[in-house]
Amino acid sequence: MKNVEKYKKGYFMPPQVDMSWTSKEYPDKAPIWCSVDLRDGNQALVIPMSLEEKLEFYKMLIRMGFKEIEVGFPAASETEFEFLRTLVERDMIPDDVTVQVLTQAREHIIQKTFKALEGVKHAIVHLYNSTSYAQRQQVFRKSKEEIKQIAVDGAKLLQRLTEEAGANYRFEYSPESFTGTEPEFALDVCNAVLDVWKPTADRKAIINLPSTVQMSMPHVYASQIAYMSRNLKYRDNVVLSLHPHNDRGTGVADAEMGLLAGADRIEGTLFGNGERTGNVDVITIGMNMYAMGIDPGIDFSYMPEVVEMYERVTRMHVHERQPYAGKLVFAAFSGSHQDAIAKGMQFREDHREPYWTVPYLLIDPKDVGREYEADVIRINSQSGKGGVGFIMEHNYGIRMPKKMRENFSYFVKSVSDHRHQELKPDEIYRLFTDHYLDVTKPLEMEDFMIKKQHGHWKGQILMRVGGKDIIFQGEGNGQLAAVAHAICDAYGITVSHLEYSEHDLDRDPSSRGIAYFGLTDEKGQTTWGAGIDTDTMTASVRAFVSAINRMPGMAERITFRNLSSSYDQIHNFRRSASHH
Ligand SMILES: CC(=O)SCCNC(=O)CCNC(=O)[C@H](O)C(C)(C)COP(=O)(O)OP(=O)(O)OC[C@H]1O[C@@H](n2cnc3c(N)ncnc32)[C@H](O)[C@@H]1OP(=O)(O)O
Ligand SMILES: CC(C)C(=O)C(=O)O
Q1: At residue 524, does pLDDT exceed 70?
Q2: Ligand 1 atom closest to 210 (CA)
Q3: How do residues 336-366 score in pLDDT, each as one tens digit?
Q4: Residues 6 or more apart from 85 whose CB is under 8 A from it?
Q5: Given this model, what pLDDT does residue 508 score?
Q6: How is 514-568 classified by DSSP, letter by letter?
Q7: Which long-range contacts (CB under 8 A, 24 or more apart) does 532-536 make?
Q8: What is the number of the ligand 2 atom nearest to the C-alpha of 275?
Q9: Number of helical H runs and strand E runs in the chain
Q10: Residue 245 annotated as binding site
Q11: Are 551 and 544 in contact (CB under 8 A)?
């Protein structure tokens, strides 16, 4: 990158660097949350939300459990002003919810903000002015003292108008562009504002330290927070708030480290919507806590609904990889991951594990309203038998023998590879039914009879082969062996190894069973087949016939042998079978 010399660090280390907070592993409780979706999020949208859209978003925030909500910048536009008035007129602010409004430190803007607040019981009036070196130099062209005076004058006006309104509003001050401000100066301005407000234990003030533009690594921001936390006046009566943005992509890390360094409150948005690269995503911070066993105090359990509402009213898109919320964040396509997840789920069930320890999944997808079947194991050409087996078992109750699962999964993979597509569960099931289940070509079984004679089993099967009815007969020391011999002897098939299993299809209300056969021929090649029926023996014979039909070279064997049965034989079989 040839222009690198254009850049230097734009942030300031605090005069005393305190990193003692790094010894803490995690905050032991959730912070106070404040959603700024309807203000910072909204001001960053290509088309800001309409009144109705903001109302819908607001209702969702209330439902999720946010108790502090920045509802807008009432002096900014008619819609912003009207929004707050609508909340008041429709009595939409629950008693335990505090609405927050943002205002510049300019008299007419503050006056208009207070007009919008008339009739609000619990409000936070949020005052800001930029304190950064760059903005003092280039935007305001004012000295530090003059900048401090803007904040102090604004703070006094808030105090006066609140008293005049007979209200009990709480106050918040943000030294905007804090991360580009010398920490000593930010401290000086904040303390001057606090001297105006003189916060008490029952009317605390909020000092909000925004990384308006993220400029440093997270530990530097956290050191700035630690410095402010230690040196702010009235600290016990100050709620120390963070408002991270995400320019460097580390908004969540800023917030988490800032909490370790002494902060009490987080301002952020759902999915990190906000100016430029966004505000910090409160869902990620909250769910990170949840995944460590700390209740975030916000309900994220119906995430798909939240995503749907958010995408509709903001016209933004939640990225597929968005932590905890994206469509693909629980999906495992690759074989080894699927195998471990399927085994982990089984282990969990078998051992009644109290804690969530399933490999590859930080949290249980069900906790955020996602489904294992649809969201976790997804099948494409990278998948393996664990994943295919999981889909077949969880969606259709089909528990193939291990080797058959392997055989089927290679088939499924190759279909996905050739089509260059993901295969959904119903397509996988169709591949199974079309290729492995009750295969009727070239041999189609019409009926069979098995009898025990002199301690030996005798089997007869009526087959339709190339338009002809043929009866096969065989003997064996078991019922299935008799059937197997009947077919194998007829066509000279040698089976060197035979694998069989069956189980009830427990998801099937008509209580059918499924049987599986694996037949290994003289060359060592194994072919699998399956059969379903309410009668176990019928299911097994069907499975056997399916496997036989799938053996390589069956069509040639049939042409070569060209067997037949007489009309009388067929007639007699049918008559006996109907009495059977
Ligand atoms: C980091 C943040 O997200 S801060 C919030 C930013 N959000 C918004 O700005 C959205 C809503 N804003 C608006 O709709 C408009 O800016 C309004 C209605 C509030 C004000 O509009 P305007 O009066 O046209 O002016 P504008 O916002 O451009 O302000 C520029 C003037 O205000 C001054 N100013 C800007 N911010 C502040 C502040 N926080 N406190 C005091 N003065 C300020 C500037 O120095 C400039 O002064 P100048 O006129 O002497 O040059
Ligand atoms: C008004 C302040 C808190 C802000 O939005 C920011 O600095 O990003």
Answers
A1: yes
A2: 1
A3: 999 999 999 999 999 999 999 999 999 999 9
A4: 116
A5: 66
A6: EEEEEEEETTS-EEEEEEEESSHHHHHHHHHHHHHHHSTTHHHHHHHH-----HH
A7: 532/437, 532/438, 532/505, 534/510, 536/502
A8: 8
A9: 20, 14
A10: yes
A11: no
Distance, CA of 455 to CA of 482 (rounded, Å): 12
Taking the CB of residue 413, how many other CB atoms lie within 10 A of it?
21
Residues with CB under 6 A from ligand 1: 40, 43, 73, 75-76, 104-106, 109, 128-129, 139-140, 150, 176, 212, 275
Give the residue carrying structure tokens 């108790």.
Answer: 67
Q: pLDDT of 298-346, one tens digit each?
A: 999 999 999 999 999 999 999 999 999 999 999 999 999 999 999 999 9
**Residue for token pair 């120390």:** 240
- Domain boundaries in the chain? 26-296+308-313, 335-435, 443-579
In terms of Cα–Cα distance, which of 180, 183, 193, 172 is closest to 265? 172
Architecture per CATH, 26-296+308-313 = Alpha-Beta Barrel (3.20)
CATH topology identical between 26-296+308-313 and 443-579? no
Half-sphere exposure of 252 (CA within 13 A, CB side): 16
At 563 the pLDDT is: 83
109 CA to middle of ligand 1, Å? 9
Q: Whose CA is nearest to atom 34 of ligand 1?
A: 104
Homologous superfamily of 443-579: Alpha-isopropylmalate synthase LeuA, regulatory domain (3.30.160.270)
Indicate if ligand 2 lies below 6 Å from the C-beta of 314.
Answer: no
Q: For atom 8 of ligand 2, which residue has the closest CA? A: 212
395 annotated to bind ligand? no
Bridge partners of 445? Answer: 463
Nearest ligand to residue 178 Cα = 2
Cis, peptide link before residue 442, omega less than 30° from 0: yes
Exposed, middle or buried by CB within 10 Å (0-12, 13-18, 19+), for 89?
Answer: exposed
Using the mean position of ligand 1's atoms as its centre, give its distance from the Cα of residue 75 in Å.
10
CA gap 73, 526 in Å, rounded: 71
Say if residue 493 is exposed, middle or buried (CB neighbours under 10 Å; 0-12, 13-18, 19+): middle
